[in-house]
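Worked Example 4.2. Consider the chain below.
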Amino acid sequence: MNLGRVAASAAVPLVLSLGLTVVVLLGSIDLSIEGTMAIGSIVLSLLVANDMTAMRLGWLALPITLAATALVGAGNGLVHVWFRIPSFMVTLGTWFIGLGIAAVVLGGGTVRILDPQIRGLALARFVDLPWLVWVAVGALASAWVIQNYTRLGRHMYAVGGDENLAALSGIRVRRVKVAAFALAGAFYGLASVLAVAQLGQANAVSGEGRLFTTVTAVVVGGTSLTGGIGGPLSSLVGVLIVVVLANGMILLGISPYLQTTIQGLMIIVATAVGLDRRRIGIVK
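Applying the procedure from the previous section yields the following structure tokens:
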């Protein structure tokens, strides 16, 4: 029973980590996770059966939600590459823009989800596991195929390994970056769908606290912050480490504040161990 809870707890962090991994492989960073999830949550919640609007699109709301969050991600990529603004600052701004839009649209309130199909992702089970776990497994398989068997995936590794060399090899670096940010946004949108299904409601802070856990999982899994090293399976390992450790600390009755402290230490230690200092002349 506890393993089932661990799997359900790992579903949303895994999908988020898959999206962040795509960006980190480029040597960039994406801090817009919570803002993008806020937008995805309100789009989904207002299009399916709810207690605020008369919309009843059901499953049709899912591709619309993914398209909306992919558009947010593409916007991050376009601003980053065309205006040459560091991805850190662009996505930090998008984080708060997304939260602001969600708060304005909902008026600071909460939408309750009445659609049985969406709620079924968390409540219905297949082989004794919630459907959202299987959706996360499907997302993992898709990310693995994209990273290893598509041109986009190979180009992302090349850009992360050496951007100048990739450009000299004929790779359209700007296009690859925009596509990677858009793909990450789509994964964040899928994670927002699973989060809404779990909570049964949506508001501007549906993704609150998700960024810290996601970054921890990606770094602990071994994906290099300098780019070019790592992948979906590495993020899976990182998510399992973080989720199992958190589950164990809860069972042991450890204070939530101490749990956060331990996660912070994990980020520092994992970065120190995994960083290839030979590739970095000066650390700023």
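The chain is about 70% helix and 5% strand. The beta strands are 111-112, 125-126, 129-130, 201-202. Compare this with Example 4.1 before moving on.
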